[in-house]
Design goal:
The radius of gyration is 71 Å and the shape is rod-shaped. Among the domains are: about 80 residues; about 80 residues, Thrombin, subunit H. About 10% of the residues are buried. Helix 1 runs antiparallel to helix 2. It is an alpha+beta fold. Strands 1-2-5-4-3-6 form a six-stranded antiparallel beta barrel. About 5% of the residues have low confidence.
Length: about 280
């Protein structure tokens, strides 16, 4: 039974009870049936009016219920459609997850393989970097050696150039001396003309500001008047050794000689303890 039937049954029950009450009242009071009927008529009219009101409300409620039922049916249909769509999406997502899981398994295996290869390459690179560092260290050492040798070669070249210049000057001076001797009718090969001293090595005992030098070599060492000797100041290295000039022997004794600085060969001030030798080495 629907709601309308229930309301109708209730109304019939109410009206039945009302009429029953009226009948009992009439029977119990034995009043004038016209008056009583009038009163009951008024009551019936009132009840009918109430019944009309209730019927109107019933119809209104029924209409609203029908609208709500229709709305709910539409909502249920929409939800059912949405449920079907969601089930399709869930199935689609499930298939995608299955595919992704399979791809992930293959990708994981590939990543593990790639990681192993990267680890191996990293070890190889580290070994190569170590070998490169060793080679660079050796190269730096070789470079330093080359620089040192180059510096030494440059210094030796400078010394050779200096020695060549001194030798050239000696040759030129010797040629001039020979020409002077020839001009004075002196044999250049005579003992007096030969100014080449024996190979000696000594030191300066004293020196004056006017160019006179006393040395530790004398006639016992083979020196004679006219011999020339080179004067230098030794240094810690060959490059630090300083050439000071050339002296000509003026006077000799057994173990000492006196010489004079030749001006054109002066390269510095000669002091005590400077070295003298046949050649500047």
């Amino acid at each position: 039974m629907n709601l309308f039937g229930k309301i109708l049954v209730v109304l019939i029950l109410v009206m039945s009870l009302t009429y029953m009450g009226l009948a009992v009242s009439v029977y119990a009071t034995h009043q004038n049936w016209r008056v009583v009927a009038k009163e009951y008529e008024t009551q019936v009219i009132n009840q009918l009016r109430k019944n009309d009101v209730l019927t109107g409300r019933f119809n209104t409620l029924k209409t609203e219920i029908d609208q709500l039922r229709k709305l709910k049916d539409n909502e249920v249909a929409a939800l059912e459609t949405r449920r079907v769509q969601l089930e399709g999406e869930v199935k689609k997502r499930t298939d995608e997850i299955t595919t992704i899981t399979a791809d992930k398994t293959a990708t994981t295996a590939a990543i593990e393989k790639l990681t192993a290869e990267i680890a191996k390459k990293t070890t190889d690179v580290e070994n190569l970097m170590k070998a490169l560092d060793d080679a660079k260290f050796q190269s730096d050492q070789h470079y330093q050696t080359v620089l040192s040798l180059t510096d030494q070669l440059a210094k030796l070249g400078a010394e050779v150039a200096k020695a060549n210049k001194v030798n050239k000057d000696l040759v030129a001076e010797n040629a001039k001396l020979k020409m002077v001797l020839v001009a004075h009718n002196i044999d250049p090969n005579s003992p007096i003309a030969n100014s080449t001293p024996p190979k000696v090595d000594g030191y300066v005992k004293a020196a004056t500001t006017d160019g006179l030098v006393e040395i530790s070599l004398g006639s016992d060492d083979g020196l004679t008047r006219g011999h020339t000797l080179e004067v230098y100041r030794p240094g810690a290295t060959a490059g630090a050794t300083k050439y000071l000039g050339r002296i000509e022997i003026l006077q000799t004794k057994a173990d000492v000689s006196v010489g004079k600085v030749i001006p054109q060969y002066r390269r510095g001030n000669i002091e005590k303890d400077d070295r003298v030798a046949t050649r500047f080495n």
